[in-house]
Design a protein that fits this description.
The structure holds 2 protein chains of 2 kinds. By secondary structure, chain A is α+β, with helices and mostly antiparallel strands. Chain A contains 6 helices and 5 strands; from the N terminus they run ββαβββααααα. Chain A has a 5-stranded mixed β-sheet with strand order 2-1-5-3-4, sandwiched between helices. Chain A is globular, with a radius of gyration of 15 Å. Chain B is of the alpha+beta class. Helices cover 26% and strands 25% of the residues of chain B. Chain B contains 16 helices and 28 strands. The chains are: A alpha+beta, B alpha+beta. At the A-B interface, α1, α3, α4, α5 and α6 of A face α4, α6 and α15 of B.
Amino acid sequence: MTKFNLLINNKNYSVEVEPDTPLLWVLRDKLGLTGTKYSCGEGICGACTVHINGNAERSCIVSVKDTEGSSITTIEGLAENPEHPIFKTWIEFEVSQCGYCQPGQIMTLAAMLNKNSSKQEIEREMSTVLCRCGTYHRIRKAVDKLVEEK
Amino acid sequence: MKNKQTRREFIKIVSVSGGGLILATYIPFNNLFAKAGDDPKIFSPSVYLKIDSNGVVTVIVHRSEMGQGVKTALPMLIAEELEVDWEKIVIEQADADSKYGSQSTGGSTSVRRNWEPLRVAGATAREMLILAAANKWNVDKSDCFAENGFVINKKSNQKFSYGELVEDASKLPVPQNVKLKEPKDFKLIGKRIHRVDTPDKIYGKAKFGIDIVIPGMSYAALSRCPSFGGRVKSFNSDKAKKLSGVIDVVQVSNGVAVISDSTWNAFNGRDALEIEWDYGPYANVSTEDIRNEMLKHIKEEGSEFENRGNIHQSIPNEKFIEAIYEVPFMAHAPMEPMNCVAKYENGKIELWAPTQNPQNVKSEVAKALGLNENDVTVHVTLIGGGFGRRLVSDFAVEAAEISKACGRAVKLTWTRKEDMKFGYYRPPSMHVLKGSVSADGKPLKFYHHIIAPSIRQMRFDKNLTAEKSEIKEGTVDLEYQIPNLKITGTLIPTHVPISWWRAVYNSQNPFAVESFIDELAYAAGKDPYEFRKQMLPQDSRLLNVMNIAVEKSGWNNRLPKGKGRGLAISYGYESYCAQVAEVSVIINKLKVEKFTVVIDCGVVVNPDIVEAQMEGAIAFALSAAMKGEITIKNGGVEQNNFDDFEILTYDEMPIVDVHIVQNNFKVGGVGEVGIAACAPALCNAIFAATGKRIRRLPVKI
């Protein structure tokens, strides 16, 4: 067990865990930040996506020891501003069905929009975030609107 | 359909307490309850609605929310009749309790089975509040009306809030045969009301089963035998117990569980267990064995479901074709893996379960632990995808057994790999199709022999015979007027656990039927639309949705080489659906460009949710048709994760253009309706584009 100091959503946290514990499980089980979801555990589906220094990363395959000194943002951090254009557009188009993958979809998109990624880059990245309810049709509508408004 | 329901049977005041008006609604379980006024002893009262003296209206949702929108749609039914401010309604999720009637959230039943009872509950409350106000003003109730949480005196313009009327209203006799609104007066029903749970879901605040934390809770992971039907022979937990965080190791019915201080440590502890398995009687079974079992029966006629005319007669100049279709085992693979929180203490247990079937969790856990059902409390959480998987209570029973065995509150979480390998799968099936057309392009004969395992036979009724089984779903209610038609079935056993999967047999049979109808159309030299049209009655709702789909999709417009359109139609869950797929196949690469979906589900409660369900059904059914397949080796499932059980991705999602037929027919199902026509429309489009007929799923170009 090792002690780690983490900066998450601009707050300092201290946790004592094994160094190779994935960030996902530190967020969920140690810090109660359950908005970041577990689904595949192997970086395939994107449900656990958070921002590490502004980059969209899959927290199920990032060890906590590699995140010290980084700035981490989770869906709870993004939702500190519920007026964020992504949230407003998501509600406008009623994108969500079961909702389980949506934090991962939103965090992936948010990082891309922050970086002014091209439509092709967004298309490629969003195609790596899985949704079993099939909300892709509406995610596309929301993405198109958000890209246009930027 | 089964239950002729009259309104008075549903309503009765069950209790009046603390100045609150509590209305109970009854839902008949079966046909025994036939006459109004019968003692409803076989039903339990169910509280769907509370209004307190502060005017807070609480609606209790007794079905599970898994993305299909019941948490929004069911309260809309009550609110419509109650005349309250939609924005102010408090919505509560019901625990498992027989007083609610069936809570099983499957079969696309939530809205259609509650359409009348919930509106009656709202209307009855409204009428009692109006009468209470009229009495206070000493005027006739016809001089009063309800609006937005108030009763208003038409003459004096005075008003009382509902909260002010609660106490008086609760002393009144319950009116019978309350008048329900005419569809033209609906304020909520038919509107695109936003979902009540969207904001919490997208802000990361919503609590799914996997997010539940209770005081003193530990985390559990379970090791199960890789082949179905196997069991633990012996195990050594020394290594596991030395690992960080590991608290305990216990054996339960399904395997060996590790209890730890976090999910991650529980997973690691589980991986460190040394278990010797008895792989059981099916340890050598593979997919090919199961397929060979089906193939054995393809020359047989099969047990009869339906028979008209004579398919065996010889007709001069008939053009005869035959084909075999087949579909594989399929996993649900919801994004939220199976999980459950359980707390066993002093002979009682409390569970927090993402279940589609709370009452089943209650009874199965009681049975497994030898408890009285009254000592099992089941809280229902949000569900991160159900699709039928969570109608089975295995994961809750596991959590309950582990909690009891280790004497702690635990959250059992399955890994994705376990979710893939230890599911209850959509059964495979094989379909023998034979048919003929006349020289002038008319259908003459149609024969369909379904060979499949029956979920009911495998799980509930070993003596069930083929002709009484459910494998016929999606085959016998065809409206096609074909003079000589025979539909038969053969049941085959399987050791692989099988269960309901969004539309189940309606995801299998229509693929075979609607693909083969397409083959017959080509054999007849007719356009697939024209061929179907001549077989359907003029007043058919199915014909209507097909006509609209053909018009909206531009069916008759020519497409360039390499592109094609395919049509399929379906009936199920009291709703009608037509789909036109448009695909391109360029250098053997399939791209699904567009689906036009037309649904007639009678009265529409929330069109936005209906559209979302159609879009989602296309994605779900395309995943099954184009990608996913569960295969068996050494008695267990071969697939591990989303890399070897692929689902549709964002860039593969076609445009989905949904059209809803507007009418006031009886409300029909929605959730599963979009599945049936998808695979055949897709494969018919592939044929139109390439001339290649796809008869086995998933599609291989």
